[in-house]
Amino acid sequence: MLEKLKQKFEETFGGNGDVRAYFAPGRVNLIGEHTDYNGGHVFPCALTIGTYAVARKREDNKLRLYSMNFEQRGVIETSLDDLTPYKEAGWTNYPKGVMWAFEERGYKMPSGLDILIYGNIPNGSGLSSSASLEVLTGLVLKDMFGFAVSMVDIALIGQYSENNFNGCNCGIMDQFASAMGKKDHAIFLDTNTLECEYAPVVLEDAKIVIINSKVKHSLVDSAYNDRRNECETALKELQTVIDIKTLGDLTEEEYEAHKDAIKSEVRQKRAKHAVYENQRTIRAVAALKANDVETFGKLMNASHVSLRDDYEVSCEEIDILVNLAWETEGVIGSRITGGGFGGCTVSIVKNEAVDGFVTNIGAKYKEKVGHEAEFYVVDIGEGAHVL
Length: 387
Ligand code: GLA
What we know:
Structural class: alpha+beta
Low-confidence stretches: none
Bound molecules: alpha-D-galactopyranose
Strand order of the largest sheet: 5-4-6-3-1-13
Helix content: 40-55%
């Protein structure tokens, strides 16, 4: 793979110079959804699929960017003097956004770069292809120019660029998982403090299976931003009656005792999800540590119900997949994963049931929805690194 990418780099940009290669993974979140911008906990892990870069410094301030996933667009040429987002710039708005965010923090790039990109995360699947591209760019800049930033800084810079350059008001989970992932471990992250703990995910009798619904509904970003605004308003309303900094500060009981301060039913549902999901995540991680995978699975199921009914970020196709999983023998838990409105589900499936799970759900989904779903049995990989 690496050799192929280097060869393509040479064909695209010519030989010579110090060429280096990098990788940043996508992620799947096991539980703790829409809690990361509410001061709660998340529990994602890095995948072994992700985005690769081959890069080389230039002597001028030009940026030449090429993606093997968008070959028809050819080499896109821009420069360090033009780090502004344009709609037509497509995928290059992600690396450019990260370069802009580095400069905002005082890390001035001494020269331009030639960068070749290749990603093997299915497009629009909600497995964080954009976050992996952001983290990847951060790593390229750190390594090429020796910027003194940590991997956590790279995650934060990626999130900052996504929020302020690309206009999605996302939390820190995706970039953090891509930058800080660890093989065979999930990351129990407190998004309020960025304290994190690695929990081994060694399921002896079961596998983690992702199903890609292959649907992505429009308005994903705006609906996401709406949810975030609703939670922020609900927090302000709660703060008139209780001294908290985030929704993640509340237990379920405290929420129930104070929820009347929230003056709309919709916002009450959103806040309820944020509070309950955070507590579910804390419990789920404790269950996993105690080797109680059954309880972990039940909490995953409850997470789905809450995302479907209270947070309202599921959709028909995803509910079909989750319902089919719940009806299947040998499924320990199943839920929507990621931002929502399409994308993927994540399930824990007993080893002996995996083949049947894939065949049966595959056939029934096609029959009900009209197109095929894709299945991936997950390996948990390392965070972003130099190759
Ligand atoms: C998207 C965002 C994350 C997180 C999830 C929902 O993936 O990028 O920050 O909010 O949605 O849990």
